[in-house]
Amino acid sequence: MGDRRKVFAAIVMSVILLSTGLVISAEAFSEKKFKTNTTKIIHLGYLQLAAHDLFNMNRDTEIDSENRLLDLSTVLFNPHGGICDYQNSLSGDMVEGAQCELYSIAEIANGGEIRSSENIMISTAGAEVGAKYLTYLNSVGAEKAYDRTLGFYYAQLEKAYEESFKLEFPEPRNTEITNLHNLALRTGHDFLPARIMFDGCIFPDEQGLCSLFIIDPLGEKLSEQEQRQQSSVVDGTLEDEFLGINFCPVPPDFCITIDLLEADQSFGKQFKDKDLDLDKNTFDEFLAELSDGSFDETDRVSMLLDEIFAQRLG
After folding, report:
1. Of 15-29, 68-82, 224-238, where does the model show the most confidence?
2. pLDDT tens digit string along 141-166?
């Protein structure tokens, strides 16, 4: 059990590299849930799955092992930085020194790569996609299974995008995706509240809510009712709890503290791209665009999100 918790801890540490999804009770936020700038937590799960599908930046090596395409690589195969795709992974080809292969049946059933177990929200979304693929695989074969699963995935992303950002889902098109887009996608953290209503919670608080960090998402999934809980309100800020998340996966021997805001801010500082004027598009400035409570079409961050979610296979 201790080894499993350490693996879980390593997963949580990847929060500072990409996105993290935390969820909250609709009842606990009754004053907020009727506003238009909230979204269902399952939508946040799919948005985070998309973030993992696009980016996997190692901040130590500064190498992105993803391919910046919405092609379900995060659930089905390792793209090795864009070398491998579904077809050559299905065939098991060796390409440019990289062994292309699909994830195992068990891995796909759990959402693919280990980052899909980062929290129960993305774990639920990833497992839904994995289950669709395996069902199609058994009924129509590997070629059609991929196309049909992509169709399901894109339909979920369209609902998540339009209901979360209140913007029209973009048509597929090719655009150069950079670290600036990665930074813009991180503004989704504005939706994140700190606690979740979860039936399997071992240590609920006084309101009956559960901190995400005491839920081991390996094997756990949100019920349909729990998926409909509402997020926090978009207002250009992160919840205070994210400024110092204390997490002890193996108490008292192994504890960590994560400042999610600092992690996002430092990402922008680390990956400056002069050609894209990243110096003038900081995370703080992106959040400031959301201070009016919405992702407006004219916001720079909204334009970048449009380009990100257009990266679909035609």
Report:
1. 68-82
2. 999 999 999 999 999 999 999 999 99
Residues 286-291 have a mean pLDDT of: 95
Residue 39 covered by a domain: yes
Domain around 89: 2-309
pLDDT at residue 29 is higher than 70: no
In a domain, 314, yes or no: no
Predicted structure pTM score: 0.85
158: in domain? yes
The pLDDT confidence band at residue 35, using thresholds 50, 70 and 90, is very low
Domains identified in the chain, total number: 1
3-state secondary structure the chain: CHHHHHHHHHHHHHHHCCCCCCCCCCCCCCCCCCCCCCCEHHHHHHHHHHHHHHCCEECCCCEECCCCCECCHHHHECCHHHCCCHHHHHHCCEECCEECCECCHHHHHCCCCHHHHCCHHHHHHHHHHHHHHHHHHHHHCHHHHHHHHHHHHHHHHHHHHHHHHCCCCCCCCCCCCCHHHHHHHHHHHHHCCCEECCCCCCCCCCCCCEEHHHCCCCCCCCCHHHHCCECCCCCCCCCHHHHCEEEEEECCCEEEEECHHHHHHHHHHHCCCHHHCHHHCCHHHHHHHCCCCCCCCCCHHHHHHHHHHCCECC
